[in-house]
Each structure stands twice: as C-alpha cells, then as structure tokens.
Design a protein that fits this description.
Number of strands: 23
Distance between the termini: 22 Å
Helix content: 40-55%
Family: Belongs to the glycogen phosphorylase family.
Largest sheet: 10 strands, mixed
CATH topology of the largest domain: Rossmann fold
CATH superfamily of the largest domain: Glycogen Phosphorylase B
Oligomer: single chain
Catalytic activity: [(1->4)-alpha-D-glucosyl](n) + phosphate = [(1->4)-alpha-D-glucosyl](n-1) + alpha-D-glucose 1-phosphate
InterPro entries: Glycg_phsphrylas, Glyco_trans_35, Pyridoxal_P_attach_site
CATH architecture of the largest domain: 3-Layer(aba) Sandwich
Strand content: 5-15%
Pfam families: Phosphorylase
Keywords: Carbohydrate metabolism, Glycosyltransferase, Pyridoxal phosphate, Transferase
CATH class of the largest domain: Alpha Beta
Radius of gyration: 28 Å
Number of domains: 3
Structural class: alpha/beta
Number of helices: 34
Length: 833
Amino acid sequence: MGLPEPGTYGDPQRNGLRAKDLYDAVVEHLFYSIGRRVPGADRHDLYMALSYAVRDRLMTRYLAGLDAVGTSPSRMVAYLSAEFLIGPQLGNNLLMLGIQQEAAEALKPFGINDIDDILHVETEPGLGNGGLGRLAACFLESLASLEIPATGYGIRYEFGIFDQLIRDGWQVEITDKWLKAGWPWEIPHPDQACFVGFGGHTESHRDQHGAYRVRWIPAEHAIGIPHDVPVLGYRVNTCNRLRLWRAEANDSFDFQTFNRGDYSGAVEKKVGSETLSKVLYPNDGTDAGRRLRLKQQHFFVSCSLQDMIRGLDARGIPVQEFPVHWAIQLNDTHPSIAVAELMRLLLDDKHLEWEAAWAITTACLSYTNHTLLPEALETWGLDLFGSLLPRHLELIFEINRRFLQQVRLRHPGNEGLLQRVSIIDETGGKAVRMAHLATIASHHVNGVAALHSELVKQELFPEFAALWPNKFTNVTNGVTPRRWLALAHPALDGLLGEVIGPDWPVRMEDVRQLEAFQHDAAFLERWSDCKRSGKQRLAAYILRQNALAIDPDSLFDVQVKRIHEYKRQHLNALQVIALYLRIKNGDTHGLVPRTVIFAGKAAPGYAMAKLIIRFINGIAEVVNADPTVNQLLRVVFLADYNVKLSERVYPAADLSEQISTAGLEASGTGNMKFMMNGALTIGTLDGANVEIREEVGDSNFFLFGHTAEGIARLHRDGYRPWERIAAMPLLQEVLGLIGQGHFSRGDRDLFQPLLNNLSGPDPFCVVADFEDYLRAQQTVASTWADRRRWSRMTLLNTARSAYFSSDRAIAEYAEGIWEVKPVPVAMRSLIEA
C-alpha cells in the first residue's frame, strides 16, 4: 500500500459527512481513542468520540490548506492576542461543516434523541475574559470563512479567568479547571518548541566584520510547546489554526537537589516556568503579579515570532522577505513587546543592520487600540522591565532616541511635545509606555468604532496623529453571524434560510431583504414566535439555575457584560428601584411586565464592581420575594457568564442595555449580537452604538444621556452631582431607600461606598444621566405595549445588522491594513464525500 497522492487527504469514507460515516467514526473512536465499548459509553464518552470524529474532518482541510499556501505562497495574517474566547467547539464545527442534522442522526443509535444532550457536555475553554477575546475568536472564524490564511497566536492557559459563584449575593471566584476532563480539539507539537529567555544581562562585541553586536545572556529560560486548534470556515475547505503556547521548564527536575532531600526544590524551576501558562491575567496588584503578566506577554510573543521566522527558514525564504509573508496584528497593548522582540531577533539572531531590521518591523506590524481608559494602556516600570528584559529595554531606548530625534527636527524646541510622545514616561516613577511603542512601530493604528477612532486621534494620541495622519484609521468591530445567530438562534436561522436562502450566514447583506416583510402581519407573527422560543429556552434555564420562574411574555430587559463602573450596571439597578417604588406606591400606569436580567464578572481585585454585583442581588432578593411587585417586575443575576450562557441570552433579549458613559466604551460587541438577534437598544452615543443607531434609524433606537462632548463639558465646568440629586426627589427617595438598608437586610453601611461615590465625585456621570434614562425607559414601555410595532422594530434591527458582521471587519483589515487575499482550498478526495 503506497502513500496517498499529493493533493488527496485521507480516506473519503473515513472523512465522509453522511450520518453513517459519522456513526462509524464515533464507534471507532469510542473503541480506539476512548477505550470504551458502545454499551458502556456515557454522554461524555460520546461527546469525546464525536469531537474526535469531527476533528478528523477538520484536519484533512487543515493539511490541505497548508499545501495550498505552500504551492501558492501568499501573505498570511498573524493575529497576536492575550485572549481567544473561542467558546464550545463541537456545535460550532458541526455548523461550519453543515452536518448538524447528520450528527444528530448518527447519535440516535446510541440512545441520544436530542443532540443538545451531548453538546451541553462540553466544557468551555478558559482562554479569554470578555469582549477582547471574543472579538479575536470572531475574527479567526471570519478569516477562515473568507478563505484568508491566518494563524491566531496566544497562550494555552491551564486555568481560565475564574468560574463565578454567587453566595449570599456576593461574587465568589473558583478555579476554572476547563482541561480536567480532557479537550479533544488541540494537537500538540512538541517538536516545534521554542526557547524564551528572561533576566540576565547583555554583552557587546565587534563581530568578524567589525560590526557592533549585542548578545543577551538570560538568567532563565522557558520552553513554549505549541498546541494547535483548527479553525474552520463556514462551508469552505479553509481551516486555519489557533496556535496556543504552553510553558515548560528548560530543566524540569533537579536530581542533585532531590537526592539531598529537598523535594520541593527539585521541581522549583518546573513550577516557576510552567506558571507562565497557568492562569489568564494574574492579579497585577502585586509586584509578583505584574512581573508574571509581563513574562506571559513576552513568552507568547517571542514564541510566535520565532515560529514565523522558523517557518520562513524551513521554506528557504530569507528573513528580509518577512513582511512579504506575514502581516502581524497586535490586538491591544498586551502583545506590543513584539516591537522590541522582533528587532532583537532580526538584529541579534539574524545579524541585520538597524535600518533593515526597523524597515521589516514597521512593514509587518499594525496595532489595534481597544480602550481610552488610561489604566488599561499598559505601562511597565523601568526597574521591572529592565530586570526581566534587559536587551529589550536597550532596544526600546534606542527606538525612542531615534524617534525623538525625528520629532526634534520637525518641532525644534518643543520639549513638552517630546515628553508627551516619548516611549519612556518621565513623570513619577519612570515607565515604558507600551501603547506609544506599538504606535511608533506600526504602519497602521486603528480604533474599533467610528467614535472611538476619532477620540483616539483627538484625545488619546493627538500628537502622534499630527505626526502621522495617514497612520490612523478605523475598523469598526464585528461579530460572526454563524455562532451568534445561526448557531445560537436555530428558530430564527430556519426562518432566515426559508425566506432569504441557505447562504445568508455568509451573505449578511441579503438579510436586508427582511425589510420587505415589515408590514406583513403573518410574517411578523412567525418572527415573534422565533423570539419567544429563545425566551422560553432562557426562562427554563433560569428556573433550573436560579429557582426563579419568569414570564416569557414579559419584556426581557438585559445587560450582560463585564462589571465595571463605566458600563454603569448601577444606573440600571437604580432605575429598577425606581420601578419598584412606583409599583409599591400604586403608580403602575404605563408600566409593562418586565424581567431585568444582569450577568457579568467583576475583576477579583475590583471592590466597587463586586459591590455592584452584591447590590443587584440585594435588589433581586427584595423584588422577587414581594408579591405586590413581582407580577410586574423581576430581577435576575445569571452567574458565571460565558459564551455557552450568552448563546442562550442573546436570542432571548428584547431590550439591549448599552448604557456606558459616553466616550468610554471603545466599541462593544454585545450590542451587535443583540441587534442581530432582533433586540432593540437603549443606549448612549458611545462606541458602536453610534453606528448601530445610524444603521437601524433614530426611531428604532432608544437614545438617552449626555454625549462624549457633553460629559467632557460637565467635568470641565465642575460637575457637582450632589446639587443635581437635591433637585431630583425620585432619585433622593431611591438613594434613601438604599441607605436605610432596604436592599441589604437592614445593613445601612453595606452600600455606603456606592452611595458616597454617586453623591460625591460620580466619575461616570450616573446622576447626570439618571432622569433622561428613566424617560427613555418609559418610551421603551409604551413601545412594548404595541406588540406589532415592537416586532416590526426588531425585524428592522436584524435586517440592518449586516454592517456588524465580522466578515465586513475582516474584509476591511484585509484590504486596508494587511494587504492579504483569499487562498481557496480544494481537496479532490473529499469533493464527492
């Protein structure tokens, strides 16, 4: 038996997509991969066996893609991100392959009549925290669906951010052991390991040609082991990869130390090195936590860049052609150490001259900024940075020296400008400004919504924008309609397929055809039935998890996102108390039954955010137990919000709460997922809300609050929230009820920090927007009362959501920033399978 011909990929029967092929594959993997006979297999065994069967089909496409790129070399995208919140993989890959029904049929002989029973077994990968990581996952999926060769690079965290429990109303963090039952979607490649150094010192010398060279001698090393996760495009053969790095020690066991009886010391290096990939975002409130964060970032960036260069070497491509073959996107500041590390590799390992190395670096790097909040723009103290990465600090000093010299030539004598643009912050304790480093070295810097990108140029980096006006651009975020509508909302997926066609998930512009049905009463009824199916599904989940019955016919008013003061969950909570007071006072005219749903995690060290969670749960405890109130109002906090749970939430939402302080949310992506699923938005003119409102129309968006300019003017004029509270009797009554301990079991002190924050500085202008928010909520209630009008508005939200597909965002990156093109993949042996 000979080897398969080039261009063929495995046995067509083994990789077939029929129900019988999948059944045979499940039986085979149960026996050979799981070690189970069919009669003894439980649901987890069946999940693992089906996942391996699906992975087989992904790998044939992945290997074909490698051949396609190898035979027709093209520029590839390297997406560097500290997070990839990819979510459960089995259901998504069945959707990508178009074999959901076939998989369901294949499971029936095993006694599984509902494939959801198997899909729910999957543990979600703990590889991200929130919007940043979910965006990266959407982008990887769209890259594959658009057939653009790409690799996502990140860290294989052994433990995710944390699992969230709610105990006595408080958030409790427990370890996210997502790997404990095995994960069938990764393929380790220990033969492609990379070495990464830390600490030590540098030595300079002249080489044989008299050129000045520097040698870095690290004090310690870690090894990065790549684990590849296949990322398949929708109904195409392109299967890219997410390459995640796991840390191992260079010398994991010290026999001499062990023989002396120091058993802990014998594995000390192993434990220290492997901590690099233990947990996502260690607490940076301590020196040790900050040190670990910087080590993590350098670890995965160094491994990734070494991997790219090694790939060129293996193909005999000179490193000078690096930008021809790789476009590197820095997803926020976390991977911005790539600037110094790529320079180090080119200068010290490849022995290029400075000008050539800098030309390569600036030709391949581009940077996405995700925040205007100063605390989220990473800086590292010089002592910490120099102790961990001495060679990189030398290079940053030299990059900064050359850059500042250019600025001096253009703006002689302007020392203030030099201080503002310098990579080194000279105020207080000296520090490296990573956003400045990324901005200086990147050929493009983009924001993630039209408003955000303007604020980046006007407020965050105005000096850089003046120096390089053509460097700054905008690419508004997007989300994949495959996971967030087709997979999450099967009833609506079926209706869209019927009236628009089966290709709608990759032709989102066709969804605009729904507008033709906006006055069709029969169609609107079917539309509402799809929404109600999602609401019933979420209501059943809440009954199981929270032991709370909610009415699927009530208005589902939903705010799900990371808990943060600027996202203003406490503004929403205050309006819930205002509703509670109205009902208690008998003022129910114009009210509609409403279920207010919150979900999100607070950073473990963020005391105010954790207090807001306790506040919401305190309100829920009172409201839900009061029979005079709970027929019109219920409050729910969903614990441990993640991708699996969000797939239930988005299809069920009627109202999307996007109420952040204007000018502080870069974009948001939850707002887009809600819109795609037909939820109406109540929101400020912040982030992508601006563009959502433009797309859907003013009359289909509930606008309130100060604009970004208005917020800036408030602070500039001396904002005094206590004076505003004195002029608002209802808000006084709300705050008074909180202060009396009504929502804290009589404890008058529990929420005092929150009250002090509102009546004192109120940095996020909750008080300033309170009355207008209540006005908008009254408009929501009156609109909901006209259910046909509401259904028409929800239909128009979905119909006009095409712009917020990640396919559109990736197409803009591909053309305007990366300059990459699709590379279609063909597989002869699978065409007929």
